[in-house]
Amino acid sequence: MLAPSVTSSACPALVLNADYRPLSYYPLSLWSWQDTIKAVFLDRVNILEEYDREVHSARFAMKLPSVIALKTYIRPARHPAFTRFNVFLRDEFECQYCGDDQELTFDHVIPRARGGCTTWENVVAACSPCNLTKGSLLPAQAKMFPRHRPHPPTVTELREHGRKFPPNYLHESWADYLYWDSELEA
Asked: From residue 125, how far is each of 54, 82, 118, 151, 154 by CA, in Å?
């Protein structure tokens, strides 16, 4: 059994597809050092960058990978799954009524009580105060209209939106593989 010289969350590996693009930007595609080592031994990844830290056993030592690329290309989904997170990402984590980015909830533009469905075309991100104010009223009754028409996003749209929200932690060895919006770099 390998004994880590670091905690399990201290050295995640950035996971790239076989085309050297991250599997996802938001959330950033990261694997724990344990999953990374397993993939290395199963010959499923190429190591592109390493940390200075090692894992070791009595007869073996290995630097922890910091960037890996899959050997087999994973085709991205053609259509994003309808999830609360993806609705928030489509709406760039802003209330579609007032623009606030706090206390986000899921709002049905045409309320379910009025026959509205839970679909891309009828759900938007809304802050809790706006959602409570609108309640089960129609947009015209509440005089509250979404800033952007709700729509099914493309995978590319979600990827581009995700690039606007870099994670709190970015290891320096990942810089050549990640492309964030230029105004966020500095």
From this structure: 43, 13, 13, 12, 17
Place of tokens 């290395």: 40
Contacts of residue 179, defined as CB under 8 A and 6 or more positions apart, other chains included, come to 163
**Amino acid at the residue 31:** W
135-144 CB burial, b ≥16 within 10 A, e <16: eeeeeeeeeb
- The DSSP code for 22 is B
Q: What is the largest CA-CA distance in the chain?
A: 72
CA dihedral sign of residues 62, 64, 68, 71: positive
Residues 131, 132, 135, 137, CA torsion sign: negative
* pTM (two decimals): 0.69
111-135 per-position pLDDT tens digit: 999 999 999 999 999 999 999 999 9
Residue 96: closest CA among 121, 131, 140, 120 = 131
